[in-house]
Amino acid sequence: MPRPVRITKRQMKEDKLVTATFKVTEFVQTHSRTFVIALAALAAVTAVVVFTISSRSARSREAAGLLGRAYLTMAAGNAELSVNDFKTIVEDYGSSPSAPLATYYLADLHFRNGDYEEALRYFQLYVDEYHHNQFLTVASLVGVADSYMELGRLASAGEFYLKAFQADTAGLEATKQLLRSGQAYLLAGEKQKAKEVFQQLIDDYPFSLQVQDARMGMAEATLED
User: Fold this and answer.
1) Reduced DSSP (H G I as helix, E B as strand, rest coil) percent helix, strand, coil of the chain, to 5
2) For 125-162, what is each residue's pLDDT tens digit?
3) Residue 224 φ/ψ, nearest 5 degrees
4) Which own/partner contact pairs does 210-213 have at CB distance under 8 Å and 24+ positions apart?
5) Which CATH class is domain 8-151?
């Protein structure tokens, strides 16, 4: 008769964390504004979970606990409570591994709530302070640009869509950000910059899904000269 397998406390802890990771990942994939954000969050959540298992820092574990609670309240649709927890992490645990992801989600929640000034503030904070994760850096640059668009600051939006493209020129949404940059510059009346961006897309990505829109944008910019 085979001996029963004993499950250690560590294994139980890891199983719970893995389960939580899958739940968070499912929520991210359902609610994120773009595919690149879902990929970024998946990578970042995994990193935080791994660190939580091995960390000896009490403050890091506290921050990770707040992060987990914030995810659960966000998944339950209670944005106000999750904003409070994310903000606590950003302000009181800014040096912890949980802070970058909390900063990003705080920005994203503000954006979805229509508070574009606060969204801009925290997306920019991520870009300035927590730019080691390429996926989240690109997502935050796009968030800055989206916030500027909503605030009517079109030239600044064009600048940051271009920065998002430059941060990952081979990314899944790189040509989309390049097109958005040209369109934002065109709307801002920055025709020369718009034409430069559209031309780059046409020359460097002739088979992309965005190239036809880039040609239309180029024609519009040229007609307005």
Assistant:
1) 80, 0, 20
2) 999 999 888 889 999 999 999 999 999 999 999 999 99
3) -80, -10
4) 210/175, 210/176, 210/178, 210/179, 211/175, 213/179, 213/183
5) mainly alpha
